[in-house]
Amino acid sequence: MKTEIQNYNNAQTDSDKEICDLLYEIINDNLAEAENKIWHAHPVWFLDGNPIVGYSKLKGSVRLLFWSGQSFEEEKLQNEGSFKAAEMRYTEISQINKEDLKRWLEKGREIQWDYKNIVKRKGVLIRLK
Q1: pTM to 2 decimals?
Q2: What CATH number has the domain spanning 3-110?
Q3: Which tens digit of pLDDT belongs to each residue from 60-112?
Q4: Which residues pair with 15 in a beta bridge?
C-alpha cells in the first residue's frame, strides 16, 4: 500500500479504518493494473488516466464511489451527482459484500465514461467502453 493511502486509512477511526483497509485490499486485488493515488484528498484508482473507483470518509460513513456506476445497472448502488457516478455507503465492515464489490469492479473496468477529458469537453461525458 502506498504511504499516502496508508496515511489516509490510518487517519480514520478504528472501525472506518477497517472498512478502508478492506476496500483497499479488494479494489487493489481486482484492479491490479490500475494506478492508485490520493486524488482530491482521497484514494482513487485509475485506468489509462480515467478515474474508476475511490473511497472517502463522510460524516457518518465511508463512501465507495464508482465514476461510471450509474451505467452498471446495480440496485444497491445509489446515484451520486449529475454525471454518471454511483455510490455505496458503509458504516461497518460487515456491510461490505465482497462478491458485489468484485462484480462492480469488473463493471468499472468494462463500462467507462471519459472523465479524464470532461473539462476539455466542457462538462460533456462520452462513453469509452
Answers
A1: 0.90
A2: 3.90.1150.200
A3: 999 999 999 999 999 999 999 878 999 999 999 999 999 999 999 999 999 88
A4: none
